[in-house]
């Protein structure tokens, strides 16, 4: 009682509005409005307009293609330069060890990670639109590249014959072939990204939903972690790719666990502890520290010094980075003949790389109040990957950890990224050889600790399980068991299938009115909602097209009331007799409308099978089941309203289905109306010749309430006409 009183008091305080206007159908509404005059352009005119060039248009296109021309002349040196320098140095000291470490994931020698941390980063400064993301090597993409390289050039290719061939030369040849696969993959994925950007396909990232990306990256973290166990333990195992590669990798490590190199394990675990402590300090004292402590470069320097001082390679058999050539390599054309073999992988890598970069760029753009251009980001990444491939770099994208450092240390523009690439360049041309004694277990420790953020996503599984369990599970399981490339393809395909299934199997509702309002809701959902006697309002939360037209009609038949009129005549001398009997069952939605059926039965006889018999005899001849079926009381429906508010488009099959519905119900005395049909759908129906003699715009209403009121007016008019007769 108190709750009801509180609700009534709340309703009294609620603001109200009163509207008095005519009942609008589309014919009347279009007569009241005046369309703006528009001169349609022919295809030739549109082509000519797009090809027309002016100085202003050329300048706009140039600024769009090279965003640096727009922001660099306005660069506020006094305000931004110091922050960009600090940010560039901080990011550079992370870029160096991560480049070396992620090269192991890509199955190429570490120096190629340095190349990938220089050329693409420098190029992005000129073509990118984001001010804060850090372009370069990234664990997920590097893992995908490594999977392709290992699949094309497996370890079995270099079957070692110790009696006839130098082992070192065999492994060098294997690594050289894998480098060619990696750089060709970078070229192809870059070309794909460039073409998508030029064709304005920046929207492709929307097909990688958040649950899908979370499931994919979490599975990728498991792949990356298992691939680094061999380096952490110092065991010699083959690297696997493709379906069940995670299981094979774990099984291989377990089978060789007795050959663990204790020195490698101790060095690796020590580095992991140091990195975790450093990250925790950076996190807890973030506000007090002017810049984060660069624990990764510190660990690299300490590990290199210890390895060189104690001669870990010769004394304990610890694997090290090895030869790092000094200087830059001459440009070289990738091996084009590999393209057919790696095309599908390149598509997956191109889309995943773009999705990672644009999602991170959008976060920073929203935080700092500027906009990014998704199509230009595709072009920028495409140029970075394709041009970088000629200089022996593998596929890159945005790094989450480095981007956060670049933004948090005061970076304002991509000048910070340029400075970080210059730091990597100095290492390549001057001091790269100093890192040759660096143990590979140190790089494995860096990779594993950087997976911490991805592994934290396991905590989000419960949340995404509640809101999108199908996408999460399908993506995670498929990516974990089938590999990252095939797993992603399977997940996207499955997501598309679920979208098609949902449009083919939408929810259907019968709507009723909330009393004294123009609001209509599902009668099965709320007790207060009432149906109008004689009027059914049907809604489907989908568009009407070839894939769901049949299910739309089936659902409508299940939720409708279809009356058959049986009329008996005997020449021109007998009266007209009506027997209104319900013959198709409708799910009665509420108990507020009294179901009934009218019987106007005269005392005269009706002709049956050429004989005259009474109605009583006819009824007596029927079985009890027939009597129960035909004489069951039902509501007398005279109007059916189709709510088209959720409908976004109608194709030719949908328009034909709609015509069939209108015609079928008209034959049994039920008028069909369409409510809430938006402008584009109206235009499409007009184009499909939907409106003709039998179907006019008078059947379309601006809102459900307009249609309901029109039904009442028409029913009242028909009743008055019947009384007059």
UniProtKB/TrEMBL annotation:
> Which Pfam families does the record match to this protein?
STAS, Sulfate_transp
Question: Is Transmembrane helix among the key words of this record?
Answer: yes
Stated membrane topology is: Multi-pass membrane protein
Any one GO MF term held by the record is:
secondary active sulfate transmembrane transporter activity
| Residue intervals passing through the bilayer | 100-127, 133-153, 181-208, 246-277, 289-310, 342-366, 378-395, 415-435, 477-501
The primary site where this protein sits is: membrane
Name the domain of life: Eukaryota
Known InterPro entries for this protein? S04_transporter_CS, SLC26A/SulP_dom, SLC26A/SulP_fam, STAS_dom, STAS_dom_sf
GO CC annotations? membrane
Localization terms from the record: Membrane
Q: Which UniProt keywords apply?
A: Membrane, Transmembrane, Transmembrane helix
* Segments forming domain STAS: 525-711
Could you tell me which NCBIfam families the record lists for this protein?
sulP
Q: What is this protein called?
A: Solute carrier family 26 member 5
């Amino acid at each position: 009682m108190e709750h009801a009183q509180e609700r009534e008091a709340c309703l009294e305080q609620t603001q109200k509005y009163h509207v008095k206007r005519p009942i609008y159908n589309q014919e009347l509404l279009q007569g009241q409005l005046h369309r703006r005059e528009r001169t349609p352009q022919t295809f030739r005119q549109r082509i000519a307009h797009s090809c027309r060039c002016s100085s202003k248009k050329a300048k706009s296109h140039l600024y769009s293609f090279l965003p640096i021309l727009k922001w660099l002349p306005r660069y506020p040196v006094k305000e931004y330069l110091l922050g960009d320098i600090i940010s560039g140095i901080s990011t550079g000291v992370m870029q160096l060890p991560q480049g070396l470490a992620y090269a192991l994931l890509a199955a190429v020698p570490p120096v190629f990670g340095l190349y990938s941390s220089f050329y693409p980063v420098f190029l992005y400064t000129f073509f990118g639109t984001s001010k804060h993301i850090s372009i370069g090597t990234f664990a997920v993409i590097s893992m995908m590249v490594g999977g392709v390289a290992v699949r094309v050039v497996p370890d079995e290719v270099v079957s070692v014959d110790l009696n006839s061939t130098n082992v070192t030369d065999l492994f060098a040849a294997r690594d050289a072939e894998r480098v060619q696969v990696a750089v060709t993959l970078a070229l192809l994925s870059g070309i794909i990204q460039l073409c998508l950007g030029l064709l304005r396909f920046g929207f492709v990232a929307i097909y990688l939903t958040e649950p899908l990306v979370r499931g994919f990256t979490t599975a990728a973290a498991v792949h990356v972690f298992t691939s680094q166990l061999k380096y952490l333990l110092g065991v010699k195992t083959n690297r696997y790719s493709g379906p069940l590669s995670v299981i094979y990798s774990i099984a291989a490590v377990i089978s060789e666990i007795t050959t663990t190199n204790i020195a490698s394990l101790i060095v690796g675990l020590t580095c992991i502890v140091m990195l975790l402590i450093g990250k925790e300090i950076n996190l807890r004292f973030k506000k007090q520290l002017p810049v984060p402590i660069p624990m990764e470069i510190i660990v690299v320097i300490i590990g290199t010094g210890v390895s060189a001082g104690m001669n870990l390679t010769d004394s304990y058999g610890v694997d090290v980075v090895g030869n790092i050539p000094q200087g830059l390599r001459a440009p070289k054309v990738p091996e084009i003949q590999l393209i057919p073999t790696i095309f599908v992988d390149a598509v997956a890598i191109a889309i995943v790389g773009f999705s990672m970069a644009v999602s991170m760029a959008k976060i920073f753009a929203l935080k700092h109040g500027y906009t990014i251009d998704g199509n230009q980001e595709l072009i920028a990444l495409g140029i970075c990957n394709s041009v970088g491939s000629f200089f022996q770099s593998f596929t890159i994208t945005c790094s989450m950890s480095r981007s956060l450092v670049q933004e948090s240390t005061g970076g304002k523009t991509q000048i910070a990224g340029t400075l970080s690439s210059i730091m990597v360049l100095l290492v390549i041309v001057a001091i790269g050889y100093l890192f040759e004694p660096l143990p590979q277990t140190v790089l494995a420790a860096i990779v594993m600790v950087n997976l911490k953020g991805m592994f934290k996503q396991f905590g989000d599984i419960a949340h995404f399980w509640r809101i999108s369990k199908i996408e999460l599970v399908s993506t995670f399981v498929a990516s974990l068991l089938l590999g990252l490339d095939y797993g992603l393809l399977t997940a996207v395909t499955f997501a598309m299938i679920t979208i098609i299934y949902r449009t083919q199997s939408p929810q259907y509702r019968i709507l009723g009115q909330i009393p004294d309002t123009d609001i209509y809701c599902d009668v099965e959902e709320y007790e207060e909602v009432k149906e109008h006697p004689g009027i059914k309002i049907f809604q489907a939360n989908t568009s009407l097209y070839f894939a769901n037209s049949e299910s739309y009609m089936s659902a409508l038949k299940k939720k409708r009331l279809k009356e058959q009129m049986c009329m008996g005549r005997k020449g021109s001398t007998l009266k007209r007799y009506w027997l209104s009997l319900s013959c198709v069952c409708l799910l009665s939605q509420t108990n507020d409308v009294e179901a009934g059926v009218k019987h106007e039965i005269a005392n005269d006889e009706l002709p049956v099978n050429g004989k005259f018999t009474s109605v009583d005899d006819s009824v007596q001849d029927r079985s009890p089941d027939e009597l129960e079926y035909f004489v069951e009381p039902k509501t007398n429906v005279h109007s059916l309203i189709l709510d088209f508010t959720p409908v976004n488009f109608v194709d030719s099959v949908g328009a034909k289905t709609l015509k069939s519905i209108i015609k079928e119900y008209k034959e049994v005395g039920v008028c069909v109306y369409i409510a809430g049909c938006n402008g584009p759908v109206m235009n499409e129906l007009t184009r499909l010749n939907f409106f003709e003699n039998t179907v006019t715009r008078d059947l379309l209403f601006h809102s459900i309430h307009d249609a309901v009121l029109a039904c009442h007016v028409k029913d009242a008019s028909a009743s008055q006409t019947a009384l007059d007769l």
